[in-house]
Amino acid sequence: MDKTQQDALKKAAGVEAAKLVEDGMVAGLGTGSTVRFFVDELGRRVNEEGLRFTGVTTSRRTKEQAEGYGIKIVDVDEVDHIDITIDGADEVDKNFNGIKGGGAALLWEKIVAVNSRKIVWIVDESKVVDTIGRFPLPVEVIPFGERHVLDRFQDRGYKPVLRLDAEGQPVLTDEHNHIIDLHMEHIDHPEDLAQDLITTVGVVEHGLFLNMVDTVIVGDPNGPRVMTNSNK
């Protein structure tokens, strides 16, 4: 699948998801290439249909995009609830376990997600997998002592790589932390891994989002299809 085809599927999923945002809602707005199409459609609805809602964003990038359309954006601590959060995912399996953080926004994404009444992911069909893990698992760590965290992950066989930018410098998250990507290929016991990662000193958060999502909207060549998590 070429990029043009993939973008068309992402856009279809994003436009479909934008229908879920209603007047008066507090909506979490995620981060990533598919979410950009979703926010574009929300902007169209705001300016052409008069949609009025309050947004909480999971990154500064999304905040700038949304505010460019005149969408009202507030800080997550200014609201007492979030009605719905719509975000992307780097992988999702049939058990609704996912990997997020390819855009280095996983910490804010998880904070917004856990404070949301409903979570929807929008993905193109390439992101739906049998077993998560082929996409490198992002782990956000504080810079102080990260070499020891890398060594610990290496000893555990997690194949860690510090994420660098085009200039060869560590990628900085919106909280000025670093990202270590774990190249594990497949994750057979995600709950055990999640527990091991979050209890490692120096780790702020990891990109495993396990059984959190309620609905996944998949951009499919035959039209957007919906996967519903019956365990939620």
Automatic annotation (TrEMBL):
The active site is at E109. It comes from the Bacteria. Pathway: Carbohydrate degradation; pentose phosphate pathway; D-ribose 5-phosphate from D-ribulose 5-phosphate (non-oxidative stage): step 1/1. Substrate binds at T31, G32, S33, T34, D87, G88, A89, D90, K100, G101, G102, G103, K127. Its EC number is 5.3.1.6. GO terms for molecular function: ribose-5-phosphate isomerase activity. The keyword Repeat does not apply. The keyword Isomerase applies. It catalyses: aldehydo-D-ribose 5-phosphate = D-ribulose 5-phosphate. SUPFAM superfamilies: D-ribose-5-phosphate isomerase (RpiA), lid domain, NagB/RpiA/CoA transferase-like. Keywords: Isomerase. Catalyzes the reversible conversion of ribose-5-phosphate to ribulose 5-phosphate. Belongs to the ribose 5-phosphate isomerase family. HAMAP family: Rib_5P_isom_A. Homodimer. This is Ribose-5-phosphate isomerase A. It comes from Bifidobacterium favimelis. The lineage of its organism: Bacteria, Bacillati, Actinomycetota, Actinomycetes, Bifidobacteriales. The gene is rpiA.
